[in-house]
Amino acid sequence: MGSLPFVSVIIPTFNRSATLLRAINSVLRQSHSHLELLIVDDGSTDETAEIVRSIDDERVRYIDLGRNCGVSVARNVGVEASRGKFIAFQDSDDEWLPDRLERQLDVFVKEPDTAFVFCSLARILKGGATRVIPSGVMPASRDAFVARLLSSNFIWTQTWLVRSEVIKKLGFDDDIKRIQDWDLALKIASKYRVVHVNEVLVVAYFTEGSLLSLTRQRALDLKIMLETQRDLLERHPAILGEYYRSIAVALRESDESGYLQPLYWAAKSFFQSPLNVSSWLTFGATLFGGAGSRVARRYHLRS
Hints:
By secondary structure, the chain is α/β, with parallel strands linked by helices. The chain folds into 2 domains: 7-205, Spore Coat Polysaccharide Biosynthesis Protein SpsA, Chain A, CATH 3.90.550.10; 216-302. It is 46% helix and 19% strand. It has 13 helices and 9 strands. Strands 1, 2, 3, 4, 5, 6, 7, 8 and 9 form a 9-stranded mixed beta sheet that branches. Helix 1 links the parallel strand 1 (7-13) and strand 2 (35-41). It starts with 6 loop residues before the first strand and ends with a helix.
């Protein structure tokens, strides 16, 4: 056992007692069993503590933050407390397949210059449909891979396996509340070798209160990423325009943002990418509502 890589698995959790045990068991039943499981309780007020303390497995460590600090803080606390050569993350409402760690560790053995391995996951949508993320073969060159990742996040945290020294050097940005995993994945991918295991090894379940919706917080996070990823974005002006557009859409769909903020970011997107139909439609919809979208679409198609 001692010759096998020791893996630290971190589960940040907040009031997920209904699904937490499924997530924990999927880690403890891994074919690669040389691991520790750190459950970081981010101020839960449900039965989370009782569930964790009922588990009779010496590999489990429970860290109670005492108050809700946010998932970035919870993950960073887990990282600092970890003792493994590799670090993986699990979400408290998802499930790993039994050979998840084994399949990804095999990459590090065969390609020792690798810093970060991720796999595909099956997302179970509301209604029962399934979507595989990501699907297909990744770009071969680092520049092309980073550009694709910069455009949209397809590396979900519960699919990560990262060398400990890499993640401890960079860490999650505590100021980014919703998409900190995307930000950190970009930082790692732009500096280190990343490999995709093109197999579904994680199942992600739909739960109410998902962090994926376009909200005002997402807009705030994207504004921070405009700074943290500035060098990359300046090399990809079309993607920069998409960031501006995403901020405009998130603010427009928020009830707290008024009219001028979404319009400002929609205009930035329009002038950054004037030939992009999405920029036209977002600007038109923000300026004039639904009628603006229809006018912008007709004008763009004629030009």
